[in-house]
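Today's session is about reading a structure prediction critically. Students often jump straight to the picture, but the first step is always the sequence itself: look for stretches that repeat, for charged clusters, for runs of hydrophobic residues. Only then move on to the predicted structure, which in these notes is written as discrete structure tokens rather than atom positions. Here is the chain we will use throughout the hour.
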Amino acid sequence: MHKENSMQRENGLQQKRVVVVGGSSGIGLAVAQQAASQGAKVVIVSRTAERVQKAVECIGGEAQGQAVDVSDEGAVATLFAKLGAFDHLVFTAGDSLHLRDLASTDLQQARRAFELRYWAALAAVKYGSPHIRKEGSIVLTTGIAGQRPQKGWVIAASVCGTIEALTRALAVELAPIRVNAVSPGVVRTNLWQNMSAPERERLYESVGNSLPVGRVGEASEIAQAYLFLMQEGFATGQTVVVDGGTVLV
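Below is the predicted structure for this chain, in token form.
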């Protein structure tokens, strides 16, 4: 019993330093808020200084922020050299989704999707992992497009499938650092900001009605999966799906 209680304390978030890349909004902000509420010292990393500052003020406490363009490898290297030691790295950065059929896909735009969602994640792990303390972890972000693609999701599915494979490879490469990923379904976040408000609501209603749970997800619900993976010391190389049952229907 004593050993079990000791492990629970060790894997908790109290006084742990958690770096959330993409933490100024959406799922990343929800992760940062929930981690801070459990006593973690949160560092928000995002591109826009104003949004970083707002997120830090929203979280309060000991939260800190860094405005960094994570698609710039040199800037990412400098960031982690400056931050020093920490416990958990969470990567949720992602731009608006551009879903269209292959014939009308702009390949330059598609490459940019990989720049942020794959290459920036890889850079964050490359330069961040040497600073992760013992019992620390990395949690990446993918999506159900990789498992259940729809028409027009060629690029989205490709990125998601790549992140899942990367998660497994990194879990082996970086052991004993644990590396996992969260795969959300459709969630109410600014990921859909390239759509008009009425279009977004129609999407949420349409998708929600098709799901076993009867609605789309909220960022706060998805965030709980990240906190679980940070604290679950026996999980690595896994992708946790939180999608309201999307892959079932």
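Discussion point for the tutorial: The mean pLDDT is 91.
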